[in-house]
TrEMBL record, chains A, B:
<dbReference type="Pfam" id="PF04079">
    <property type="entry name" value="SMC_ScpB"/>
</dbReference>
<dbReference type="GO" id="GO:0051301">
    <property type="term" value="P:cell division"/>
</dbReference>
<protein>
    <submittedName>
        <fullName>SMC-Scp complex subunit ScpB</fullName>
    </submittedName>
</protein>
<keyword id="KW-0131">Cell cycle</keyword>
<dbReference type="GO" id="GO:0051304">
    <property type="term" value="P:chromosome separation"/>
</dbReference>
<keyword id="KW-0159">Chromosome partition</keyword>
<keyword id="KW-0963">Cytoplasm</keyword>
<dbReference type="InterPro" id="IPR036390">
    <property type="entry name" value="WH_DNA-bd_sf"/>
</dbReference>
<keyword id="KW-0132">Cell division</keyword>
Automatic annotation (TrEMBL), chain C:
<dbReference type="Pfam" id="PF02616">
    <property type="entry name" value="SMC_ScpA"/>
</dbReference>
<feature type="region of interest" description="Disordered">
    <location>
        <begin position="260"/>
        <end position="283"/>
    </location>
</feature>
<dbReference type="InterPro" id="IPR003768">
    <property type="entry name" value="ScpA"/>
</dbReference>
<protein>
    <recommendedName>
        <fullName>Segregation and condensation protein A</fullName>
    </recommendedName>
</protein>
Amino acid sequence: MIKEVTDAHEAEARIGKLRLLEALLFASAEPLDEETLAGRVGPEVGLLLEELRAHYAPRGVTLVRTGGGWAFRTAVDLAPELRREEEVSRKLSRAAIETLAIIAYHQPVTRGEIESIRGVATSKGTLDLLMEHGWIRPGKRRETPGRPLTWITTDHFLDHFGLETLRDLPSVDDLRAAGLLDSRPVLLGLGATADDSALGSDNEE
Amino acid sequence: MIKEVTDAHEAEARIGKLRLLEALLFASAEPLDEETLAGRVGPEVGLLLEELRAHYAPRGVTLVRTGGGWAFRTAVDLAPELRREEEVSRKLSRAAIETLAIIAYHQPVTRGEIESIRGVATSKGTLDLLMEHGWIRPGKRRETPGRPLTWITTDHFLDHFGLETLRDLPSVDDLRAAGLLDSRPVLLGLGATADDSALGSDNEE
Amino acid sequence: MADLVADLPAGCEADAAAAAESSPSEQLLLVLDGFEGPLDMLLALGRDQKVDLTRISILELADQYLTFVAEARKVRLELAADYLVMAAWLAYLKSRLLLPEPQGEEPSGEDMAAALAFQLQRLEAMKGAAEKLFARPRLRIDVHPRGAPEDLDLRRKSVYEVTLFDLLRAYGRQRARKESGVLHIAPVRLYSMEEAVRRLSSLLGHMPDWAMLASFLPSGESGGLLTRSALAAHFAATLELAKAGRVELRQEGAFAPLYVRGRPGNSADSQDGDISEEAQSHD
């Protein structure tokens, strides 16, 4: 990779610069222009870049010049093997995440119950989507008037979220303790609000 | 880079696989597990990965193993030249740093145990913050009265701190040998406001 | 005091410098701010012995801690309950170490001291480990991943990106919304002084003789904020009523039970002057 140089010290400095160039180009989100790179490794940047380009030419990753800058890209000939699937990963809607969470915590739970917990109607698409994704499935019918269908989570749900059993879901107290559930405004100076039982009991006054 | 092989065809196939592996790993910012990679290049993935690791060892970008996966990362010795300041908003409190270390070294560990080690209650938001960073997650419940939730570190934690496995935690063997990784509570009533046994009781609500 | 300030954990030097120029109570406050609870403070004091933690003198440490707490209380500093619990425990430990061991099932003083030494070592070990951990090259700070990842989505485990954290946070928010649907500021029930004055006035008519103030407290509340505020309100109410000349107060000594009775004749000539004088005049 390094051209013959007579001076060992010089060779070492050269290797150091090539390594820094490699790292800079690798870590940058945007192609880097020669001027920027010259600021880091000196005026011989052009030669160094050509050297790197030659080194990577036969490899699975190549150094390419794009627009005014330089960037590493996976080799063009590998594109068919790297081709990404059509579907791009998407964010699940907030309604869907909430619905999934409620099913996880309250299962078996009917759609009516989910709606009363969330306080808004659940669109049919939400449950369909969660089911299509394999996270939930219909459970037994509830033996109440109308025999509504209940929903429960699947093994795939556990798998996806890295849980061994449903019992490993943090409890409401755990969530509160971890700071993930914080509804009550903190009353400064009244340390005694920890005394939940006393406060909770006269809530109805 | 390629070991001597008698058969030219075999050599070519091998190079093809190395290039593909290189490209796959290069394309991803997150570590890829061997299983995923084996699905693309076949069962000899282990040998190929070692070969790539050796090739990149002296360069500015190196192939590292972390948790169950492999990833390209800039070389550690270039850190001073590539250092990015930590965003002020991401700076962690002393409590959060200590809590993370306790989880890393004592895992799986309950909140009560963390509090007994630190001798002080865990403020709300500490575990939440560590979880948001992707460093910790809930583990299994402890099979003791009250079935308290335990906390463990994630693969991302290993990746973040450049660790291959938990055994590579600094000084972990010495600490274990000295008996200092014993998380049992020692002095009753010290800080441990989180009575573990009280937690986890209202999962069913 | 001065050496306590010097024991600050690393990173608080600036505070210490500031403390040197402020009043003793401010100094103590600054010192306390630097600690993560009583065990952390003990550890800082322990480091000052400049010996290996395995050979630390627990007795000396207990003395240092108790001195600190005594100083803090002298300047009427509000100490968190944790610190007082530790002080009580250390005082007990001290007595166990100094007095002959009683026969019994309790752990010996030596065992208790050893347990404390172990806790300090363990905490010290974790602080050291945390330091080493964060001294490691960290991702996106010292070591960097590919800056322009080409999204291959190889794992194909899921089309949707949802982590356990997302799920738990969604549930937490949902619960929080539910708990505070109509912004329910959990009512902090406090007993007001007016309430206590009304209550005492009506009760005193039926209590001709001295009675303990505590017996006037509303029943059915045990401990907690409400009880404590009721006590405070009733106390303030008796002072107010005494000032108006409607009741008399009596107390044997500091912190002794406070007795109260309706003033015979209950006329309107209000008396100024402090409670203790008035109490003495009736003894």
